[in-house]
Amino acid sequence: MPESTPAAPNDNTDKPRFLISDLCALLEQYLEPTQIREVYRSYLYGAEAHNGQHRKSGEPYIYHPIAVAKILAEMRMDHQTLVSAILHDVIEDTPTVKSQLSDEFTPEVAELVDGVSKLTHLDRKSHSEAQSENFQKMFLAMSKDIRVIIIKLADRLHNMRTLGVMPAHKRKRIANETLEIYAPIANRLGMNNIRKELEGLGFSAKHPMRANVLRNAVQKARGHHSEITSHIEQSIKRALFQEDIPADILGREKHLYSIYQKMLKKHLPFSEVFDVYGFRIIVDKVDTCYRVLGAMHGLFKPVPGKFKDYIAIPKSNGYQSLHTILFGPHGIPIEIQIRTEEMHQIAESGIASHWMYKQNNDAPPQLQNHQWLLNLLEIQKQSGNPLEFLESVKIDLFPDESYVFTPRGKIIKLAKGATAIDFAYAVHTDIGNSAIAVRVNRRLSPLQTTLYTGQTVEIITKKGAQPNPSWLTHTATAKARTSIRAYLKNIRKTESVDLGKRLLTKELEQLNSSLEELPAQHLEAVLASYQLTSIDQLLSEIGFGNRMPMLVASQLISPEDIGGDSALPHSGAPLTITGTEGMVLHLAKCCFPIPGDPIVAFFSPGKGINVHHDQCNNYLNRKDPTDWTAVQWEKDLEGEYAAGLRIEVANQRGVLGTVSSVIAQQGCNIESVQMDELDGLTSVVHFVVTVQNRKHLANLFRRVRLLKFVLKISRTKH
């Protein structure tokens, strides 16, 4: 694409280009002649469509699609993917439309090209909004056909290889996007080669000075490093020869970005990161992998707790291998990876390896190890907007994993740092929505408990339970987060409609009317003026505090007043607070009203109504009489409510503990406590405690006043 496809800083644009003839020669290694002819025909079509277009480097634009196709051909992708790669920019950058591609080639090619193409007509949106909508479109297309993202990764790889002629600020933006989105996607799909190159190019573009310093340090250290590497490799070969195990042994060197990330995260100097020697041992079959592991543990002492069996429990991207760390000569740490040839192919090429050497190249393979892709549609349905969708996907792009067990022994993979809430939603959305507690290794624990590999987890559910908004701060997976948000949005909408109906009914009663008695034309006129389509939308707007119920009521009675700013005075019976209003009714934290208190309520746009004590300064200083409504508590209301206490005490040892003990004895929970010194003799303790009503609070006051060091106690009313 024009903006993101410049030439590389060290790219000589005069060097011989990879031409369509070179591509066809490469394709002869694995495609049928008829398929190669189809690829060539797509080149002719693309060259004509892009005729007159040039890249930032000045070269004809068609060179870019050919280069993208070459990357895919090296991965042995099917001919439909290659055709789509050559045409991947024609919808976005030329007058060509999707239907033309479908007629000229196949509907499959048209869908692939459309999936890769950016959305148009996003000029009025911010860059982050436009980026999020484009990624959302791409991810949804990718969830239906994985080849969409494989083409996009090849496209981004060539763009990164040729990034040099872009302005510095665009280079950094594109590099950042690559490191945040594309490299993690390649990693998630197991495309290790693509991921490493994207990370290396992105690192060099984003932090050129750091990359250069690190590159020089690696080159200086490599001489001494190679001697030790050769010595260790010979020891491994001798050990395997004695066990009569044929194997390929490859030295494994960390790439720059990996070294940089490890230094950054673990605060290590370069010498400690680079002084780790890695080897990869490739054998014929799975049984041999475990034989090699035994030989390696016999050769060098293993580091306790550093063995990982990804063969028995593969990573979510399909990666399989045995990992172990050994104490080498002179205590040098040695990282060993043991895998079969097939595992090695999947580890390097990931999902793309499914196309290699396939006899039938016309259909994409079934993805058995990529549940993440299947979850994309569910995340999309539950996300409120593209920005939220992209945020949720980013969470799952960094899949350091833990493995926990259900009570029946089923393995559940979770992101590192996941809690029991994430586990509940991983099992089933309904389990998550009704969860109230968890047993971890048979011990009762809160749902916010972080889980670790090897634990057995059992979720305790209760009919009628529902997610708590605070759960969003204790989740590490996109599925849990989007499921919680979707449930809360649905609940808030239902609650807002119910509250809005009660508020509007109350105001209509003052006008001797009701919703049922309103003329249909009056209701239609008011809905049209607010650009709403249903009565439920209007009620929801009132419940969320976006519309004043007294103003809406007056307009429903007299549609000719629409647009005016007059409102009827507050009168009549107050609205009764029942405690079932949920998330659209909030008890103010400034004055902590409790059942029995005289109260008023303010409308808060987008949130609902906030209930205050009628002696709260925030109410007494209120100037606008139209944004509040009279309310009262329902009689015999049950539940626990926060109350603020201000207690002046004499400075004595153990004062805070004694007061806290008395509060607990009265059946009150302490939610927060803060102690401030007034002078050398007295201090003020601020408590927030839970009580049932004013009577419960009065009993607490009487008991606290009996303490000799208590000088004064009062409620907090700002």
Q: How do the helices and strands line up, and which of them pair or pack?
A:
Layout: H1 20-27, H2 33-49, H3 63-74, H4 79-86, H5 90-93, H6 98-104, H7 107-116, H8 127-144, H9 147-161, H10 168-188, H11 192-206, H12 208-242, E1 248-252, H13 256-266, H14 270-274, E2 277-283, H15 286-299, E3 301-302, E4 308-309, E5 322-327, E6 333-340, H16 341-349, H17 371-382, H18 386-395, E7 401-405, E8 411-415, H19 420-427, H20 429-433, E9 435-440, E10 443-445, E11 457-461, H21 478-510, H22 520-529, H23 535-543, H24 549-557, E12 575-577, E13 585-587, E14 599-604, E15 608-613, H25 617-620, E16 628-633, E17 641-650, H26 655-665, E18 670-677, E19 682-691, H27 694-705, E20 710-715
Parallel strand pairs: 2-6, 12-16, 13-15
Antiparallel strand pairs: 1-2, 3-5, 4-5, 5-6, 7-8, 9-10, 9-11, 14-15, 14-16, 17-19, 17-20, 18-19
Helix pairs in contact: 1-3, 2-4, 3-4, 3-9, 4-7, 4-9, 6-7, 7-8, 7-9, 8-17, 8-18, 9-10, 9-11, 10-11, 11-12, 12-13, 12-15, 17-21, 18-21, 19-21, 21-23, 21-24, 22-24
Helix content: 40-55%
> CATH superfamily of the largest domain, please?
Hypothetical protein af1432
By DSSP (H or I, 4+ residues per run), the number of helices equals: 27
CATH topology grouping of the largest domain:
Hypothetical protein af1432
Please tell me what the overall shape is. Answer: globular
- The assigned CATH architecture of the largest domain is Orthogonal Bundle
How confident overall, as mean pLDDT? 80
Alpha-beta content class: alpha+beta
The total tally of domains equals: 5
What oligomeric state do these chains adopt?
Answer: single chain
Name of the level-1 CATH class of the largest domain: Mainly Alpha
Counted beta strands: 20
